[in-house]
Design goal:
60% of the residues lie in helices and 4% in strands. By secondary structure, it is mostly helical.
Length: 402
Protein backbone atom coordinates (compact mmCIF):
# COMPACT_ATOMS: atom_id res chain seq x y z
CA UNK A 1 0.00 0.00 0.00
CA UNK A 2 1.43 3.33 -0.97
CA UNK A 3 1.72 6.09 1.58
CA UNK A 4 2.60 9.73 0.98
CA UNK A 5 4.13 12.33 3.26
CA UNK A 6 1.71 15.12 4.19
CA UNK A 7 3.56 18.11 2.73
CA UNK A 8 2.53 21.74 2.48
CA UNK A 9 2.76 22.10 -1.28
CA UNK A 10 0.83 20.09 -3.81
CA UNK A 11 2.82 17.36 -5.45
CA UNK A 12 3.69 17.82 -9.14
CA UNK A 13 1.49 16.06 -11.67
CA UNK A 14 2.35 12.55 -12.79
CA UNK A 15 4.10 13.69 -15.94
CA UNK A 16 6.57 15.96 -14.18
CA UNK A 17 7.16 14.11 -10.92
CA UNK A 18 10.76 12.91 -10.75
CA UNK A 19 12.05 9.90 -8.90
CA UNK A 20 13.62 12.18 -6.28
CA UNK A 21 10.45 14.11 -5.54
CA UNK A 22 8.41 10.91 -5.34
CA UNK A 23 10.89 9.37 -2.91
CA UNK A 24 10.83 12.51 -0.76
CA UNK A 25 7.02 12.41 -0.72
CA UNK A 26 6.95 9.03 1.05
CA UNK A 27 6.94 8.86 4.82
CA UNK A 28 10.48 7.82 5.66
CA UNK A 29 9.77 6.38 9.12
CA UNK A 30 7.19 3.92 7.78
CA UNK A 31 9.46 2.75 4.97
CA UNK A 32 12.42 2.34 7.32
CA UNK A 33 10.42 0.28 9.80
CA UNK A 34 9.00 -1.82 6.98
CA UNK A 35 12.52 -2.25 5.59
CA UNK A 36 13.72 -3.39 8.99
CA UNK A 37 10.92 -5.96 9.01
CA UNK A 38 12.06 -7.28 5.63
CA UNK A 39 15.61 -7.68 6.95
CA UNK A 40 14.28 -9.52 9.99
CA UNK A 41 12.28 -11.73 7.63
CA UNK A 42 15.53 -12.55 5.87
CA UNK A 43 16.97 -13.58 9.24
CA UNK A 44 13.90 -15.71 9.90
CA UNK A 45 14.03 -17.42 6.52
CA UNK A 46 17.78 -18.05 6.68
CA UNK A 47 17.12 -19.86 9.97
CA UNK A 48 14.20 -21.78 8.47
CA UNK A 49 16.10 -22.80 5.35
CA UNK A 50 19.52 -23.58 6.85
CA UNK A 51 18.80 -24.44 10.50
CA UNK A 52 15.90 -26.84 10.18
CA UNK A 53 17.77 -29.46 12.18
CA UNK A 54 16.90 -27.52 15.37
CA UNK A 55 13.23 -26.75 15.82
CA UNK A 56 12.24 -23.74 17.89
CA UNK A 57 8.57 -24.49 18.57
CA UNK A 58 5.64 -22.23 19.46
CA UNK A 59 5.93 -20.97 22.13
CA UNK A 60 9.68 -21.33 21.75
CA UNK A 61 11.04 -24.45 23.45
CA UNK A 62 12.60 -23.67 26.82
CA UNK A 63 15.30 -26.25 26.13
CA UNK A 64 17.06 -24.37 23.32
CA UNK A 65 20.10 -22.17 23.84
CA UNK A 66 19.61 -18.41 24.42
CA UNK A 67 21.35 -17.43 21.15
CA UNK A 68 18.83 -19.41 19.10
CA UNK A 69 15.95 -18.30 21.34
CA UNK A 70 16.61 -14.60 20.78
CA UNK A 71 17.43 -15.10 17.10
CA UNK A 72 13.96 -16.57 16.71
CA UNK A 73 12.37 -14.11 19.14
CA UNK A 74 13.44 -10.92 17.41
CA UNK A 75 11.70 -12.03 14.22
CA UNK A 76 8.38 -12.04 16.10
CA UNK A 77 8.25 -8.34 15.25
CA UNK A 78 7.70 -9.05 11.57
CA UNK A 79 4.07 -10.06 11.18
CA UNK A 80 2.44 -7.67 13.70
CA UNK A 81 4.40 -4.64 12.55
CA UNK A 82 3.93 -5.36 8.86
CA UNK A 83 0.18 -5.92 9.16
CA UNK A 84 -0.23 -2.85 11.39
CA UNK A 85 1.63 -0.75 8.80
CA UNK A 86 -0.56 -2.19 6.06
CA UNK A 87 -3.62 -0.85 7.87
CA UNK A 88 -1.98 2.51 8.53
CA UNK A 89 -0.95 2.81 4.88
CA UNK A 90 -4.53 2.01 3.83
CA UNK A 91 -5.70 5.05 5.80
CA UNK A 92 -3.03 7.21 4.16
CA UNK A 93 -4.09 5.94 0.73
CA UNK A 94 -7.68 6.89 1.54
CA UNK A 95 -6.70 10.35 2.83
CA UNK A 96 -4.09 11.85 0.46
CA UNK A 97 -2.45 14.98 1.80
CA UNK A 98 -3.41 17.15 -1.14
CA UNK A 99 -6.67 15.69 -2.34
CA UNK A 100 -10.14 14.52 -1.27
CA UNK A 101 -10.95 11.21 0.34
CA UNK A 102 -10.70 8.22 -2.00
CA UNK A 103 -12.17 4.87 -1.09
CA UNK A 104 -9.49 2.20 -0.61
CA UNK A 105 -12.04 -0.61 -1.00
CA UNK A 106 -11.33 -1.63 -4.59
CA UNK A 107 -7.55 -1.40 -4.25
CA UNK A 108 -7.47 -3.33 -0.95
CA UNK A 109 -9.73 -6.05 -2.32
CA UNK A 110 -7.67 -6.53 -5.50
CA UNK A 111 -4.35 -6.38 -3.72
CA UNK A 112 -5.56 -8.87 -1.15
CA UNK A 113 -6.42 -11.31 -3.92
CA UNK A 114 -3.03 -10.78 -5.58
CA UNK A 115 -1.17 -11.46 -2.32
CA UNK A 116 -3.19 -14.61 -1.65
CA UNK A 117 -2.43 -15.82 -5.20
CA UNK A 118 1.29 -15.25 -4.58
CA UNK A 119 1.03 -17.32 -1.38
CA UNK A 120 -0.76 -20.15 -3.16
CA UNK A 121 1.67 -20.36 -6.06
CA UNK A 122 5.11 -18.98 -5.22
CA UNK A 123 5.30 -19.98 -1.58
CA UNK A 124 4.24 -23.57 -2.26
CA UNK A 125 6.94 -23.94 -4.93
CA UNK A 126 9.56 -22.85 -2.39
CA UNK A 127 8.91 -25.78 -0.06
CA UNK A 128 7.63 -28.38 -2.51
CA UNK A 129 10.95 -30.25 -2.21
CA UNK A 130 10.51 -30.69 1.56
CA UNK A 131 6.73 -30.84 1.93
CA UNK A 132 5.40 -31.86 -1.50
CA UNK A 133 2.00 -32.92 -0.19
CA UNK A 134 1.38 -29.84 2.01
CA UNK A 135 0.31 -26.30 1.21
CA UNK A 136 0.96 -24.05 4.19
CA UNK A 137 -1.09 -20.84 4.22
CA UNK A 138 1.07 -18.38 6.11
CA UNK A 139 1.84 -14.67 6.36
CA UNK A 140 0.95 -13.59 2.81
CA UNK A 141 -2.30 -15.53 3.01
CA UNK A 142 -3.36 -13.74 6.19
CA UNK A 143 -2.24 -10.32 4.92
CA UNK A 144 -4.36 -10.87 1.82
CA UNK A 145 -7.39 -11.92 3.90
CA UNK A 146 -6.93 -8.94 6.21
CA UNK A 147 -6.79 -6.54 3.27
CA UNK A 148 -9.98 -8.03 1.85
CA UNK A 149 -11.63 -7.70 5.26
CA UNK A 150 -10.42 -4.11 5.61
CA UNK A 151 -11.77 -3.31 2.15
CA UNK A 152 -15.22 -3.82 3.68
CA UNK A 153 -14.54 -2.61 7.22
CA UNK A 154 -13.12 0.74 6.05
CA UNK A 155 -16.70 1.76 5.22
CA UNK A 156 -17.59 1.64 8.91
CA UNK A 157 -17.47 4.61 11.26
CA UNK A 158 -13.88 5.43 12.20
CA UNK A 159 -14.51 4.88 15.92
CA UNK A 160 -16.28 1.59 15.25
CA UNK A 161 -13.17 0.42 13.37
CA UNK A 162 -10.96 1.28 16.34
CA UNK A 163 -13.32 -0.33 18.86
CA UNK A 164 -13.59 -3.49 16.77
CA UNK A 165 -9.81 -3.69 16.43
CA UNK A 166 -9.33 -3.32 20.20
CA UNK A 167 -12.06 -5.85 20.94
CA UNK A 168 -10.46 -8.46 18.68
CA UNK A 169 -6.87 -7.92 19.86
CA UNK A 170 -7.76 -7.83 23.55
CA UNK A 171 -10.54 -10.39 23.48
CA UNK A 172 -9.62 -13.13 21.04
CA UNK A 173 -7.69 -15.07 23.70
CA UNK A 174 -11.03 -15.84 25.36
CA UNK A 175 -11.96 -17.87 22.27
CA UNK A 176 -9.08 -20.34 22.72
CA UNK A 177 -11.18 -23.04 24.45
CA UNK A 178 -13.58 -23.24 21.48
CA UNK A 179 -12.85 -26.27 19.35
CA UNK A 180 -14.47 -28.09 16.43
CA UNK A 181 -13.96 -31.64 15.30
CA UNK A 182 -12.40 -32.08 11.81
CA UNK A 183 -15.16 -32.47 9.27
CA UNK A 184 -17.77 -31.13 11.67
CA UNK A 185 -19.93 -28.05 11.30
CA UNK A 186 -17.92 -24.87 11.74
CA UNK A 187 -14.51 -26.56 11.56
CA UNK A 188 -13.35 -24.95 8.28
CA UNK A 189 -14.47 -21.44 9.24
CA UNK A 190 -13.00 -21.71 12.75
CA UNK A 191 -9.69 -23.02 11.40
CA UNK A 192 -9.45 -20.02 9.06
CA UNK A 193 -10.37 -17.56 11.80
CA UNK A 194 -8.81 -18.77 15.01
CA UNK A 195 -7.41 -22.30 15.22
CA UNK A 196 -4.26 -23.21 13.24
CA UNK A 197 -4.83 -26.66 11.82
CA UNK A 198 -5.21 -28.72 8.66
CA UNK A 199 -8.06 -27.28 6.63
CA UNK A 200 -8.55 -30.39 4.49
CA UNK A 201 -7.31 -31.98 1.30
CA UNK A 202 -7.62 -30.93 -2.33
CA UNK A 203 -6.38 -33.42 -4.91
CA UNK A 204 -4.12 -35.15 -2.40
CA UNK A 205 -2.66 -31.81 -1.21
CA UNK A 206 -3.17 -31.14 2.50
CA UNK A 207 -3.93 -27.48 3.15
CA UNK A 208 -2.70 -26.18 6.49
CA UNK A 209 -3.64 -22.84 8.06
CA UNK A 210 -0.62 -21.54 9.96
CA UNK A 211 -1.91 -17.98 10.40
CA UNK A 212 -5.56 -17.83 11.55
CA UNK A 213 -7.04 -14.53 10.35
CA UNK A 214 -9.10 -13.14 13.23
CA UNK A 215 -6.36 -11.74 15.53
CA UNK A 216 -4.45 -10.33 12.58
CA UNK A 217 -7.61 -8.65 11.30
CA UNK A 218 -7.73 -6.85 14.64
CA UNK A 219 -4.18 -5.62 14.05
CA UNK A 220 -4.88 -4.25 10.57
CA UNK A 221 -7.96 -2.46 11.94
CA UNK A 222 -5.81 -0.83 14.64
CA UNK A 223 -3.29 0.20 11.98
CA UNK A 224 -6.07 1.89 10.01
CA UNK A 225 -7.32 3.52 13.22
CA UNK A 226 -3.81 4.90 13.88
CA UNK A 227 -3.67 6.52 10.44
CA UNK A 228 -4.76 10.03 11.54
CA UNK A 229 -1.52 10.33 13.54
CA UNK A 230 0.08 10.89 10.13
CA UNK A 231 -2.49 13.40 8.93
CA UNK A 232 -1.35 16.74 7.51
CA UNK A 233 -2.63 18.59 10.58
CA UNK A 234 -0.59 16.56 13.11
CA UNK A 235 2.82 18.02 13.94
CA UNK A 236 5.89 15.83 14.31
CA UNK A 237 6.27 16.50 18.09
CA UNK A 238 2.59 15.67 18.67
CA UNK A 239 2.86 12.46 16.63
CA UNK A 240 6.06 11.40 18.37
CA UNK A 241 4.49 12.02 21.79
CA UNK A 242 1.43 9.95 20.88
CA UNK A 243 3.55 7.08 19.52
CA UNK A 244 5.74 7.09 22.62
CA UNK A 245 2.72 7.17 24.91
CA UNK A 246 0.85 4.35 23.21
CA UNK A 247 3.97 2.20 22.79
CA UNK A 248 4.99 2.65 26.43
CA UNK A 249 1.42 1.91 27.56
CA UNK A 250 1.48 -1.38 25.64
CA UNK A 251 4.66 -2.44 27.39
CA UNK A 252 3.42 -1.28 30.81
CA UNK A 253 0.21 -3.28 30.39
CA UNK A 254 2.30 -6.26 29.32
CA UNK A 255 4.39 -6.03 32.49
CA UNK A 256 1.21 -6.03 34.58
CA UNK A 257 -0.61 -8.84 32.80
CA UNK A 258 2.45 -11.03 32.29
CA UNK A 259 4.07 -10.20 35.61
CA UNK A 260 1.06 -11.50 37.50
CA UNK A 261 0.17 -14.18 34.92
CA UNK A 262 -3.32 -12.66 34.78
CA UNK A 263 -4.33 -12.83 31.11
CA UNK A 264 -2.87 -12.70 27.64
CA UNK A 265 -0.81 -15.89 27.42
CA UNK A 266 -1.67 -19.52 28.14
CA UNK A 267 1.92 -20.45 29.07
CA UNK A 268 2.76 -18.94 32.50
CA UNK A 269 6.27 -17.73 33.23
CA UNK A 270 8.31 -18.79 36.23
CA UNK A 271 11.66 -18.15 37.83
CA UNK A 272 14.37 -20.35 36.31
CA UNK A 273 17.87 -21.38 37.36
CA UNK A 274 19.55 -18.40 35.64
CA UNK A 275 18.57 -14.79 34.96
CA UNK A 276 18.70 -15.33 31.20
CA UNK A 277 16.43 -18.35 31.41
CA UNK A 278 14.00 -16.39 33.60
CA UNK A 279 13.90 -13.59 31.04
CA UNK A 280 13.29 -16.15 28.31
CA UNK A 281 10.41 -17.60 30.31
CA UNK A 282 8.87 -14.16 30.84
CA UNK A 283 9.14 -13.18 27.16
CA UNK A 284 7.98 -16.47 25.66
CA UNK A 285 4.55 -16.00 24.03
CA UNK A 286 2.43 -17.95 21.58
CA UNK A 287 2.39 -16.75 17.96
CA UNK A 288 0.05 -19.26 16.26
CA UNK A 289 -2.41 -17.67 16.86
CA UNK A 290 -0.85 -14.61 18.51
CA UNK A 291 -1.83 -14.00 22.12
CA UNK A 292 -2.46 -10.56 23.60
CA UNK A 293 0.98 -10.58 25.26
CA UNK A 294 2.56 -11.32 21.88
CA UNK A 295 0.71 -8.36 20.37
CA UNK A 296 1.53 -5.99 23.23
CA UNK A 297 5.28 -6.52 23.10
CA UNK A 298 5.62 -6.51 19.31
CA UNK A 299 3.31 -3.58 18.58
CA UNK A 300 4.61 -1.70 21.62
CA UNK A 301 8.18 -1.97 20.35
CA UNK A 302 7.03 -1.15 16.82
CA UNK A 303 5.35 2.08 17.97
CA UNK A 304 8.44 3.11 19.97
CA UNK A 305 10.57 2.51 16.88
CA UNK A 306 8.23 4.69 14.81
CA UNK A 307 8.57 7.45 17.40
CA UNK A 308 12.36 7.22 17.24
CA UNK A 309 12.36 7.22 13.44
CA UNK A 310 10.39 10.47 13.36
CA UNK A 311 13.73 12.26 13.67
CA UNK A 312 15.11 10.69 10.49
CA UNK A 313 15.56 13.23 7.72
CA UNK A 314 17.72 11.35 5.23
CA UNK A 315 21.05 11.99 6.91
CA UNK A 316 21.81 8.42 7.95
CA UNK A 317 23.08 6.27 5.08
CA UNK A 318 22.24 2.99 6.81
CA UNK A 319 18.65 4.02 7.51
CA UNK A 320 18.43 5.36 3.98
CA UNK A 321 19.43 1.95 2.64
CA UNK A 322 16.87 0.25 4.89
CA UNK A 323 14.28 2.71 3.56
CA UNK A 324 14.91 1.39 0.04
CA UNK A 325 14.10 -2.11 1.29
CA UNK A 326 10.90 -0.84 2.85
CA UNK A 327 9.65 0.91 -0.27
CA UNK A 328 9.45 -2.38 -2.23
CA UNK A 329 8.72 -4.97 0.49
CA UNK A 330 6.59 -7.52 -1.36
CA UNK A 331 8.98 -7.64 -4.30
CA UNK A 332 11.96 -8.27 -2.01
CA UNK A 333 10.00 -10.79 0.05
CA UNK A 334 9.49 -12.97 -3.01
CA UNK A 335 12.96 -12.47 -4.48
CA UNK A 336 14.93 -13.26 -1.32
CA UNK A 337 13.04 -16.52 -0.77
CA UNK A 338 14.03 -17.81 -4.18
CA UNK A 339 17.60 -16.59 -3.72
CA UNK A 340 17.74 -18.60 -0.50
CA UNK A 341 16.32 -21.65 -2.27
CA UNK A 342 19.00 -21.40 -4.97
CA UNK A 343 21.74 -20.84 -2.37
CA UNK A 344 20.59 -23.89 -0.42
CA UNK A 345 20.83 -26.23 -3.40
CA UNK A 346 24.20 -24.85 -4.44
CA UNK A 347 25.57 -25.47 -0.94
CA UNK A 348 23.92 -28.89 -0.82
CA UNK A 349 25.58 -29.88 -4.09
CA UNK A 350 28.97 -28.59 -2.91
CA UNK A 351 29.01 -29.88 0.69
CA UNK A 352 26.31 -32.54 0.66
CA UNK A 353 24.01 -33.26 3.63
CA UNK A 354 25.48 -32.09 6.93
CA UNK A 355 22.47 -32.65 9.23
CA UNK A 356 20.55 -35.78 8.39
CA UNK A 357 19.41 -35.58 4.78
CA UNK A 358 19.75 -31.79 4.56
CA UNK A 359 22.49 -29.20 4.45
CA UNK A 360 22.53 -27.01 7.53
CA UNK A 361 24.64 -24.34 9.18
CA UNK A 362 26.80 -25.41 12.08
CA UNK A 363 25.85 -22.70 14.61
CA UNK A 364 23.60 -19.69 15.18
CA UNK A 365 26.34 -17.17 14.39
CA UNK A 366 26.31 -18.35 10.79
CA UNK A 367 22.60 -17.50 10.59
CA UNK A 368 23.45 -13.87 11.32
CA UNK A 369 26.48 -13.81 9.01
CA UNK A 370 24.41 -15.32 6.21
CA UNK A 371 21.67 -12.75 6.76
CA UNK A 372 24.12 -9.87 6.50
CA UNK A 373 25.46 -11.32 3.24
CA UNK A 374 21.90 -11.81 1.96
CA UNK A 375 20.94 -8.25 2.85
CA UNK A 376 24.00 -6.76 1.17
CA UNK A 377 23.37 -8.85 -1.95
CA UNK A 378 19.80 -7.55 -2.14
CA UNK A 379 20.59 -3.88 -1.62
CA UNK A 380 21.38 -3.14 -5.30
CA UNK A 381 18.22 -5.01 -6.26
CA UNK A 382 16.15 -3.04 -3.76
CA UNK A 383 17.60 0.30 -4.82
CA UNK A 384 17.16 -0.39 -8.53
CA UNK A 385 13.58 -1.64 -8.24
CA UNK A 386 12.61 1.16 -5.83
CA UNK A 387 13.94 3.70 -8.34
CA UNK A 388 12.03 2.03 -11.16
CA UNK A 389 8.84 1.83 -9.11
CA UNK A 390 8.92 5.49 -8.03
CA UNK A 391 9.61 6.54 -11.60
CA UNK A 392 7.08 4.37 -13.41
CA UNK A 393 4.22 3.56 -11.07
CA UNK A 394 2.11 6.44 -12.32
CA UNK A 395 2.14 4.79 -15.75
CA UNK A 396 2.23 1.12 -14.70
CA UNK A 397 -0.52 0.42 -12.20
CA UNK A 398 0.64 -3.16 -11.62
CA UNK A 399 3.63 -1.77 -9.70
CA UNK A 400 1.26 -0.63 -6.96
CA UNK A 401 0.67 -4.28 -6.10
CA UNK A 402 4.37 -4.87 -5.41
Amino acid sequence: MEHWQPVEKALPDSQSMTKESAARARIASLDILRGGVILLKMLHHVRERFYMHTRTGDPIFDSIDPDLFFTRYITHLCAPVFIFLAGLSAWLYAHPANGPYRSPTAFLFKRGLVIIAIELVFYYLLWADTYPSFLFLQILWVIGLCMIGLSLACRLNYWVIGALGLLIVFGHDTLAPIDFEPGGFGYVLWTILSDPNDLGQVGGLTINISYPALPWFGVILLGYFAGPLYAHSVSTPKRRKALLGIGASCLALLLLLRGLNIYGETLPWSVQETVVETVMSFLNYTKYPPTLDFMLITLGIGLLLLAWLESFRGRNRLLGAIQDFGSVPLFLYIVHLYVLLAAYWVLFLVFGPTHGERFGLSNVAWIWVSTVILGLAHYPIARAFASYKHREKRNKTWLSYL
